[in-house]
Design a protein that fits this description.
Blueprint (H helix, E strand, L loop, with lengths): L1 H9 L6 E3 L2 E3 L1 H18 L8 H20 L2 H25 L3 H28 L3 H5 L11 E2 L2 E2 L8 H9 L1 H11 L3 H18 L2 H19 L6 H19 L4 H9 L3 H20 L23 H9 L1 H20 L5 H20 L7 H12 L11 H4 L2 H9 L1 H4 L18
Antiparallel strand pairs: 1-2, 3-4
Helix pairs in contact: 1-2, 1-5, 2-4, 3-4, 3-15, 4-17, 5-8, 5-9, 5-16, 7-9, 7-10, 8-9, 8-16, 10-16, 12-13, 13-14, 14-15
Keywords: Membrane, Transmembrane, Transmembrane helix
Protein name: O-antigen ligase
């Protein structure tokens, strides 16, 4: 976990290092140094067998380079192709190799929370004093961005490049902290952790971050209310589909337009995202195979070049095959993880933490773009969950098929497809 800890800390260092044609941030440099050893370790089976999900991400990384080559000369794409491969596949490999058990996962959550806790006072001062306190203290005031105030507060960015990135980073912690600390049987820690994550998210004043936090809250509340009902998440899925159909049938706007309208701070912001979706999808259909690469997308002159939709942008930039490989890998991961038998409460807590957090992050990605360090953090988080489908479960989860059968028949086994930790604890104290 030492390698992962260095990576998490390096995300907070807003320095830039020029290495030949590559512009490296500290986290990029760390991932570059580890890339080959991590790749060799995975191919040699050091982190369990290579899964189909792994091959999907390998294929996506290769396709991104092919897409860039199809759109630009080789000399132009060396830096962006290298940076994307490191941030995308390198961060995934780091999580894949260094997090191999529930104990590793819960330790990672504690380290993440300590980072958020350290950043909180600086975010609070930044919002109240209307200046980038932390960046000024470390002599990186040139990295600060001023995009105005909301609710009388400066949007906090702390050590990140933008308030959106700070908000996206800290908001991802709700599901992680809630379920990891629930497993550790500490109600006060869980409530305190929730408060810290919520306040930090609010100080970013980012609609995407607040949406991620809100969706995780909905998931947690649903799980808590219906934790004794086996089919609760099937009901949730069908219910969400029904709401989508009803909105489509009985409103003049599409469900996407309705979501964007209520997930942003202003009508101007929501209208801009709707236009981004309209013109962005048209660009994708015009360039379906290789996307646009680094080329500008076609839109009215008065529109900004910013694409505030992560899922849209990856298809726009690298083509539909890249989008299918990434989303297909994620759907397969979630499906296999949800169906895995996990009698051990530590494993179930880790699963609930990841699925809750990733659900919020994935939905918020429809209204915000993740880039640079936060993009790498999300890939690291995805990689840190693969042990749940590739032989990293506790021995109690794998040792005896009859035990799995007994649990599958019992309510306790049904108690956590998404997150029931409290109803299925063992009598043993956790090691983490």
């Amino acid at each position: 976990m030492f390698l992962g800890t260095v990576f998490l800390i390096s995300l907070l260092l807003p320095m830039r290092i020029r290495l030949g044609p590559l512009l490296l941030f500290p986290y990029r440099l760390w991932l570059l140094l580890l890339f080959i050893p991590l790749l060799i370790a995975l191919l040699r089976g050091k982190a369990g067998p290579v899964a189909f999900v792994d091959w999907c991400f390998f294929g996506a990384a290769i396709w991104a380079v092919v897409s860039l080559l199809a759109n630009h000369p080789l000399g132009v794409i060396i830096e962006p192709a290298g940076a994307h491969t490191i941030e995308f596949l390198g961060a995934y490999l780091l999580g894949r190799i260094t997090i191999r058990s529930a104990e590793d996962f819960h330790r990672m959550v504690r380290i993440f929370f300590m980072i958020v806790l350290v950043l909180l006072p600086f975010a609070l001062l930044e919002g109240l004093l209307h200046r980038p306190v932390l960046l000024q203290l470390i002599g990186q005031n040139g990295v600060a961005v001023d995009i105005g105030t909301r609710m009388g507060l400066r949007r906090a960015q702390t050590a990140f490049e933008h308030p959106i990135l700070f908000g996206s980073f800290v908001s991802a912690g709700l599901g992680l902290v809630w379920y990891s600390y629930a497993y550790n049987r500490s109600a006060m820690r869980r409530l305190f952790g929730t408060f810290v994550i919520g306040l930090s998210t609010m100080l970013s004043l980012s609609s995407g971050a607040l949406m991620a936090f809100a969706m995780q809250t909905v998931f947690i509340a649903w799980e808590w209310v219906l934790k004794s009902y086996k089919r609760r998440w099937a009901i949730f899925g069908w219910g969400a589909a029904a709401v989508y159909v009803l909105i489509d049938l009985f409103t003049t706007a599409s469900p996407f337009h309705v979501l964007v309208r209520y997930a942003t701070f202003s009508m101007q912001s929501s209208y801009n995202r709707i236009l981004i979706w309209h013109y962005g999808t048209q660009n994708i259909w015009d360039n379906p195979l290789f996307g646009l690469g680094l080329n500008d997308w076609v839109r009215p002159r008065w529109m900004s070049a910013s694409v505030d939709n992560f899922w849209l942008l990856i298809a726009l930039r690298y083509g539909i095959p890249f989008f299918i490989l990434v989303t297909g890998a994620l759907v397969l991961l979630i499906w296999r993880m949800s169906r895995a038998q996990m009698p051990d409460p530590a494993d179930r807590a880790a699963r609930a933490a990841f699925l809750t957090t990733f659900g919020g992050v994935a939905l918020a990605a429809g209204t915000v773009h993740y880039w640079n360090g936060v993009f790498s953090f999300i890939m690291f988080l995805i990689g840190s969950s693969i042990w749940m489908i590739s032989g990293g479960l506790s021995q109690s989860s794998n040792s005896d098929q009859s035990i799995e059968t007994d649990h599958r028949k019992s309510r306790r086994a049904a108690g956590l497809k998404f997150g029931d930790v409290t109803n299925a604890r063992s009598n043993n104290r956790p090691k983490t």
